[in-house]
Amino acid sequence: MGKMIGFQNELIELYHGELKTDYDIKRLTTWKIGGICKYIAFPDNEADLLIILKLLKKYNVKYYIIGKASNILFGDQYFSGMVIYLGKNFTRYNIKTENDIGIIKVLSGQSLNKIGKIAKENSLSGMEYLSFIPGSVGGALITNAEAHKKSIGDLVVEVKIVDNGEVKVITKEQCGFKYRSSIFEKNDFVIIEVTLQLKRDQQEDIDKRYEEAKLFRMEKQPKMPSAGSVFKNPDIGPAGLLIDQAGLKGLKVGGAVISIVHGNFILNEELAASADVIQLINIIRNKINDYYSVNLELEIKIFNN
Ligand SMILES: Cc1cc2nc3c(=O)[nH]c(=O)nc-3n(C[C@H](O)[C@H](O)[C@H](O)COP(=O)(O)OP(=O)(O)OC[C@H]3O[C@@H](n4cnc5c(N)ncnc54)[C@H](O)[C@@H]3O)c2cc1C
Question: What pTM did the predictor assign?
Fold first, then answer.
């Protein structure tokens, strides 16, 4: 306990950003699932983020980094460590346009949605389809988020990270972007800032693609709380289709249900517990393994479980 008092005292002394205690995480997750966490910080600049990371290391306090919490299953039980939530205040950006190119430098918590709007307002193309993914740009890098075959990695120039306490800038090539994967998946880097390069295009073409992407989401995406696709697509085909063919659509456990619309979405229909979702995940994995001898890999991250 002494350790946590020391941590808290130094945190209050050194960290100047927004901080809350005993915070209900389900207020932030798109799944509307998650328990209470002891500390949650909403830093708005690099210096404050680095102070927090230093103290977490010094006092060996467990923590999770969250962008917009749109790809996370957070456990229901009390979490006695810290959540660093970047999707609220860690959002500053600047934009430079030159000839046919626009460079956006943005803190990692900024939403893809807002970056898409900024791009559109500046007649820059590249973000139209990605704009409707409800995540932050930092979170998007982890799984190289993709929509309509356009992935965030394609736009990256460089990324500023914290690697074991040290701030570094790495190039796109070093990020190792692949289908639903990057080096950020396997390393404990904290992404500070992302530099994206976009191309100038005709405003009406950009607007058209943007509206097309918006319409697609409205028509094709389940409306109830979810975290998007739960599993990565295996080589043999889309996970949603396999789940459908295995007859699992509509299956319920507690308050969670496998979407009728999209087999790779698990929906929080009514006050689902994290355990309900985990049970559905296990049922799906077992059945898909029996049917197709394929191990479905998770796209979502499971925290505090
Ligand atoms: C309705 C819906 C539709 C979706 N559609 C798509 C889609 O079309 N395509 C797609 O690819 N995804 C989709 N998703 C999934 C999700 O939105 C994306 O994966 C998104 O990029 C996650 O970003 P986030 O900020 O919410 O990440 P979070 O959920 O907050 O975090 C995900 C992971 O990233 C890590 N992380 C976040 N920020 C940082 C950082 N700054 N530094 C280090 N690690 C960090 C977290 O620790 C965690 O491991 C969808 C989700 C929903 C709910």
Answer: 0.97
Atom of ligand 1 lying closest to residue 185 CA:
49
- Assign domain 2-85 to its CATH architecture: 2-Layer Sandwich (3.30)
CATH number of 93-220: 3.30.465.10
Q: Do strands 79-85 and 266-268 pair parallel, antiparallel, or not at all (unpaired)?
A: unpaired
Fold of 239-298: 3.90.78
Quick: pLDDT tens for 44-91. Answer: 999 999 999 999 999 999 999 999 999 999 999 999 999 999 999 999
Cα dist from 207 to 70, 103, 122, whole Å: 25, 19, 11
Specify whether 128 is catalytic: no
Ligand 1 mutation target, pool 46, 115, 133, 300, most atoms within 8 A of CB? 133
User: Collapsing DSSP states into helix, strand and coil, what is residue 194?
Assistant: strand
Ligand 1 pocket check for 30: Cβ under 6 Å: yes
Instruction: Answer whether 102 contacts ligand 1 (Cβ < 6 A).
Output: no
The segment(s) of the chain belonging to CATH 3.30.465.10 are 93-220
Output the CA–CA distances (angstroms, integers) from residue 12 to 38, 63, 79, 298, in the order listed. Answer: 14, 17, 20, 37
User: Is residue 3's pLDDT more than 90?
Assistant: no
Residue 299 annotated to the active site? yes
pLDDT in tens, 117-164: 999 999 999 999 999 999 999 999 999 999 999 999 999 999 999 999
Task: Considering the chain, tell me which residue range(s) the CATH 3.90.78.10 domain(s) occupy.
Answer: 239-298
